[in-house]
Amino acid sequence: MRFTFVTLFENIVKPYFEDSILSRAIKENIFSIDFVNPRDYATDKHKKVDDYQAGGGAGLLIKPEPLSRALEQIKSDSPSAYFIFATPAGKPFKQIDAKRLAKYEHVVFVNGRYEGIDERIIEQYADELFSIGDYILTGGELPSMCMCDAISRNIPKVLGNAESLDIESYENNLLEAPAFTKPNSFKGSDIIKEYLKGNHGNILTLKSRLSVCKTNYFRPDLYKKIKTKGKLNEK
Ligand code: SAM
């Protein structure tokens, strides 16, 4: 799988993928990351990529022509390119999106800066718009890195232990059950005794119950969804 970041600030993104699990997956060619800078597609001598807003308004916008040329180039080089725009106007990015997009061949993240991108570019090129939360960031790079991270760990072989994906939080709208490691007792607080008895069937049953309780406590909005879907066995 391939990810392309369309960004004016490649150096913000690059280091994130040079460490840890994701860098290993890149070295093993499980997925790749590349960058396209719209500034390279500006034709004036100052390489201008932004301009004032039509009708007034505070701040500058990314202007359409260089960005459009950059996106056209990507499209002609890669017919499978799927354009995702990071924008506060997008639908909330969810785990289900990460799983779905992990099956795509080539995902392109288009990142706004300043006060955003000329709306016509979004209308003409976006396959999907995503927001990562109801707050405003300085640019699309962080949201796109979050999405890329979440997508890539769902690509087969990226994680050493693929089983962990099935029990992670947000699977079936549940949060993962509490987890512990050594020591068995820490500052007066003990690991749940059942976890230490070695009966894996019992541990799994207990974990699935705790997962429901934890969801009810921390994320009542998700808990409501599992209740209405009738997935709960509330004995
Ligand atoms: N003026 C825009 C507005 O009010 O909707 C905000 C522009 S923001 C300062 C600049 C860029 O950051 C956006 O074009 C987008 O790419 C990115 N961005 C900011 N917050 C975001 C969020 N919550 N989710 C996704 N992208 C975001």
Topology, pairings included?
Blueprint: E1 2-6, H1 10-13, H2 20-27, E2 32-36, E3 50-52, E4 60-62, H3 64-77, E5 81-92, H4 95-101, E6 106-111, H5 119-125, E7 128-131, H6 141-152, H7 163-167, E8 185-186, E9 189-190, H8 200-218, H9 220-228
Parallel strand pairs: 1-2, 1-6, 5-6, 5-7
Antiparallel strand pairs: 3-4, 8-9
Helix pairs in contact: 4-6, 8-9
The protein binds S-adenosylmethionine.
Residues 86-88, 111-113, 115-117, 131-133, 135-140, 143 line the site of S-adenosylmethionine.
CATH superfamily of the largest domain: SPOUT methyltransferase, trefoil knot domain
Class based on secondary structure composition and strand pairing: alpha/beta
**Residue fraction in strands:** 15-25%
Name of the CATH first level of the largest domain: Alpha Beta
- In round numbers, the mean pLDDT is 95
Q: What is the helix fraction of residues, given as a range?
A: 25-40%
How many structural domains in the coordinates? 2
Question: What is CATH's topology name of the largest domain?
Answer: Alpha/beta knot
Rg value: 22 Å
Instruction: Please provide the ordered H/E string of secondary-structure elements.
Output: EHHEEEHEHEHEHHEEHH
Q: What bound compounds does this protein have?
A: S-adenosylmethionine
Quick one: biggest sheet? 5 strands, parallel
* Unreliable segments of 5+ consecutive residues: none
How many helix segments? 9
Oligomer: single chain
Distance between the termini: 44 Å
